[in-house]
Amino acid sequence: MQLDFFPSRTLTWYLAKLFVVRILAVLVMLVLVLMMLDLLSNSGKILAVDGNGQGELLTYAGLRIPQLIQRFLPYSVLLATLISLVTLNQNSEVIAMKAAGLSAHQVLAPLLLSAMVVAGFSFAFNERIVTRATATLKAWEAADYGPVPEESNVRANVYLADGENVLTAAQLAGEGNAIAMRKVTWYRRNADGTILEQVVADRATYAAPGWKLEDVERFEISSATLQTEDELIVARELTPDQIDLARIDPDAVPFWELGSSIDAYEAAGRRTGELRAKWWHKLSGPLSSFLMPLLGAIAAFGLARSGQLFVRALIGMALGFAYFVVDNAALAMGNFGGYPPFLAAWAPFFLFFLIGETVLIRTEE
After folding, report:
1. pTM for the complete prediction?
2. Closest to 83 in 3D by CA, of 137, 164, 133, 21
3. Residue ranges of the domains in the chain?
4. Is the confidence at residue 256, as pLDDT, over 90?
5. Nearest partner of 345 among 356, 358, 329, judged by Cα
6. DSSP characters for 306-347?
7. d(CA 187, CA 168)
8. Is the pLDDT of residue 261 over 90?
9. Does the domain made of 155-246 have the CATH classification 3.90.660.10?
10. CB count in 10 Å sphere of residue 181
11. What is the enclosing helix (H) or strand (E) of 28?
12. Cis amide leading into 209 (omega within 30)
């Protein structure tokens, strides 16, 4: 029995190369198929805007592909794990490695090392490229794939609290008193949250105090009446400083900037549970790639001639997809305040790490 965690250099390189090539192949396949389906569903909206053409479709694809890579890279690692390990098992290479004195952990060590490298690449890619692509794409979608305003700090799908009332905007641009909003909706509510009136406007600007809505439609819920006005002042308690403080989209802000923004929120006495959970998940999310070889390891062992290889592969796939389900559920609970932020982001990772280790040790070690 070798005491080193890794097998020989030649075997380590062989397994790592085999694994990485399959990760790239599966990722390219998934991204291409999903990108084509995405274009089929959104190309009509993009081309419906005057002046948009093939260039805008390519721009959309360039902004969407990084998001698809971010989302499906862990799935690619899981599928590549199953493909690699099933192939090695069918060719009796796993049997040969175990006959040479390698433990199950030593067989998996090159795959785990490769997955750790992939996780590091995923983190850097997410924070340097995906965040910028997400911010640009959201601003473009909020403009209905038309020209995006040249103002700084464009943000899409804004939700702001005005006491008991709520102000939403499809797009927000500018800073301080120069903030301008498009496709604005203001909900007047009573103390129990019931909506009393809905006000829709094309544009809103700061009126010092309040926000001046232009081209207004007012719908009174109790009387079911609709009125139109040229201008209306609402949300007099909502200031530009409060909006600037609320200008955080965790999906479009890098890890190192999101932490300082959360500190500013906490200093202002704002609730930060959702942001803190997503901040932690920026670390645990990419690291999920490291789990995939461990969860899919059950497909590597057991005799291929026993007829149970397919069942083992299904069990490995079930464990991997169960992790993603639990991870999304825990993050949702953290966003609603059901779990502490650290627990929401890291509990699924450690839980399935223990499950993977338990299955591997009980069956093979």
Report:
1. 0.77
2. 21
3. 9-144+274-364, 155-246
4. no
5. 329
6. GT-HHHHHHHHHHHHHHHHHHHHHHHHHHHTTSS-HHHHHHH
7. 8
8. no
9. no
10. 26
11. helix 9-47
12. yes
